[in-house]
Structure formats: structure tokens, C-alpha cells
Design a protein that fits this description.
By secondary structure, this protein is α/β, with parallel strands linked by helices. The protein is built from 11 helices and 7 strands.
């Protein structure tokens, strides 16, 4: 069961509880699922019980117990535990990892992307400042991936170099006349230096990777091809997944989702499963840095896992190798998709 399918399963459990009269609360449009945090257990956790507690007029633990009874017998669910104030921790049957990889490979760059418009209308208005312009541009892309309709505008006409070098554009510029002028709602800490000498990819990363309340570092460190550079690690991890596919083809090895049988894969599977949640969170908080940091986490997991993918020495290709290759290819798909939403290129050779 993939995270998207599990989210739907959770919503069905809520609907059954409401239809049975066990809960009196509106059924949410979406249920967030993600790998459990500290103190959690199982494969995924959801806070839907905490979300429903207030409208239902019941304690979160009581809501969680009601929903657990409807979730426990769902197809693909091996067990449900309640932790903390009312988190539902869900353990899937053994096919969860295989289904996740198959889903990513099937959806490609649209993994984590909402298929239907949500009806949310968002106006992003920013000052004539380079970091604000790049942030609004990236936030708009992320919001659109989550089904929102977005319009961007700037208080004044953007600098030509922003479009030429950084790929930034807006739908309108200038502030409308009263009685309803737009309010600036994208205002990160400004960049102290002009980032355009870094080029598009490094400049955008330098502006988007720090949280909006942190001052960005506009230095040549973002161009260095070394492990201390997070952008390099993300792009290098993506390039490594592509190299693994090329090397596997030379060996006559093809990928097939399955049981990876590798402890080093655990963190990578968790990161891939959490990607839709990271996208949704970045959209909700208008925070592209959350997506950037998740890509770094995914890349580090790829680089720790990559050495186990292909056969070594006289080792013969096996089903486990095909499963590891499929997992690596899925990771490359997620890294490329996330970088694209940030407006950054993901080269196949690095």
C-alpha cells in the first residue's frame, strides 16, 4: 500500500465512523500520513484523530480508538497502535515497500503531485527583491503541484536578470489602486548579495535551502563539488541513480520492485514514503526550504545505499538486486522531481 492509498484508507475509516454515528464531525478532504516520528512505531503515522477531536467534541485518544477499529481490518493493514496524544501508528503487510516503489516508478515525476484541482486560490505578492522573487516562484510551483490555483505578483517590475539567469517570472507587477491593494505575503530575509553570479541552479539553492527567517549565504561554496555542499550531494545522488541504471543495463540486469533485503534501505524507503507529506507541508507553510531539506535527507540515504545495488565480483544477479535497482531508480525519480519543483536542474552525469 502506497502513502496515497493509505491516506484514502484512513479517510474511508473516518467516513465509516461518521456514517455509523460513532463520530459527529466533518470528513476531511485529505489525511496526512508519514513515517512515524520519535516514540512512534510501525510504517506510517497519521494525526487525523487529533484533527477531528475538536469538531467531534471528544478527546483525541477516544477518537483514535474509534478509528483504530475501522482501520485494523482494512486490506493491507497488519496492525494499528495509538501513541502519544492520539497518533494512529499503522503497520502494513509485507508488500508495502514493493507497492511504494512500483507507485513511484509508475507515476514518475507526478509522484506526490495532486491529480485534481483542490479549488484553493492563492495570490503570492512579493517585494522587488531577488530572494522574495525566487521564493514566490518556487512556492507557486509547489502549490500548483498540490492542486492550488496560484497567481504571482510583484510590487514593481522584476529585474531583467532575474528572468534571464534565475528563471523567475510573475503574472503581474505593480500594486493595484485602493480600495483593495494587495498585501505583501512573501517576504523572506533579503539576500545581502546579488546571487546571479552563481548561475541559476546554485543561486536558487542558496536562496531556497535556508528557512525564510534565516539569512542566505551567497558564496561560491554552493558551486563546490564536495560532500559539504548539500546541493552537490542531492545532484550527485541523482546522477548516481542514473549511473546505476546504465551499469545495470550493461550487465543485462533490469529492475523489478520487490523485497530489498537490505538494512541500509530502511532510511531511503522512509524518505521516499515521506516525500508526498514533505510536498504538502512545503505548500501549506509556503516553505520551499522544507522540500530542499527533504531532498538532502533522501540524497544522503541514496549515497549510503548505492553500494549494495549491483552485484559485486562474481556475484550473480538476483531478485534482490533487481529490487534494489528499482528502489534506486525510484529515488532518482523523487530527487529529479523535487529539484524540478525548486527550479533546479538534475543532470544525469555529474
Amino acid at each position: 500500500m502506497t502513502p496515497v492509498e493509505l491516506s484514502r484508507t484512513v479517510l474511508r475509516a473516518v467516513r465509516r465512523a461518521v456514517d455509523a454515528g460513532e463520530l459527529v464531525a466533518p470528513v476531511p478532504e485529505r489525511a496526512q500520513v508519514a513515517p512515524p516520528g520519535p516514540g512512534g512505531r510501525g510504517d506510517y503515522a497519521t494525526n487525523v484523530a487529533l484533527q477531528l477531536a475538536r469538531p467531534a467534541g471528544r478527546p483525541p485518544q477516544e477518537v483514535a480508538r474509534i478509528l483504530r477499529s475501522h482501520l485494523a481490518d482494512a486490506d493491507g493493514v497488519a496492525g494499528v497502535d495509538i501513541t502519544g496524544p492520539g497518533f494512529l501508528n499503522i503497520t502494513l503487510d509485507g508488500s508495502g515497500e514493493q507497492d511504494l516503489v512500483a507507485e513511484i516508478l509508475r507515476r514518475g515525476a507526478r509522484y506526490g503531485v495532486v491529480d485534481e484541482p483542490t479549488g484553493e486560490l492563492v495570490q503570492l505578492h512579493h517585494p522587488r527583491e531577488v530572494r522574495a522573487a525566487v521564493t514566490a516562484h518556487a512556492v507557486a510551483r509547489i502549490l500548483r503541484s498540490q492542486g492550488a490555483l496560484v497567481r504571482t505578483s510583484c510590487e514593481d517590475e522584476p529585474a531583467p536578470a532575474w528572468a534571464a539567469v534565475l528563471g523567475v517570472g510573475v503574472d503581474a507587477h505593480g500594486t493595484p489602486a485602493a480600495p483593495a491593494p494587495l498585501k505583501v505575503n512573501v517576504r523572506p530575509v533579503p539576500a545581502a548579495q546579488d546571487p546571479t553570479p552563481l548561475g541559476r541552479d546554485a543561486a536558487r539553492w542558496a536562496l531556497l535551502h535556508p528557512a525564510s527567517h534565516d539569512r542566505p549565504r551567497i558564496t561560491s561554496d554552493h558551486l563546490l563539488q564536495r560532500e559539504t555542499n548539500p546541493l552537490f550531494r542531492v545532484r550527485y545522488a541523482h546522477a548516481r541513480t542514473r549511473a546505476l541504471s546504465r551499469n545495470a543495463a550493461a550487465l543485462g540486469l533490469t529492475s523489478a520492485p520487490g523485497d530489498v533485503q537490505d538494512n541500509d534501505a530502511t532510511h531511503l524507503v522512509d524518505a521516499l514514503a515521506a516525500y508526498p507529506h514533505a510536498l504538502a507541508t512545503a505548500a501549506r507553510h509556503r516553505a520551499p526550504d522544507r522540500l530542499a531539506r527533504h531532498l538532502v535527507t533522501t540524497a544522503d540515504a541514496v549515497l549510503a545505499f548505492q553500494h549494495t545495488v549491483l552485484p559485486l565480483g562474481d556475484e550473480k544477479p538476483s531478485a534482490a538486486h533487481r529490487a534494489r535497482l528499482a528502489l534506486a531508480e525510484a529515488a532518482g525519480t523523487v530527487l529529479a522531481g523535487g529539484l524540478s519543483l525548486l527550479g533546479i536542474d538534475a543532470p544525469e552525469h555529474l
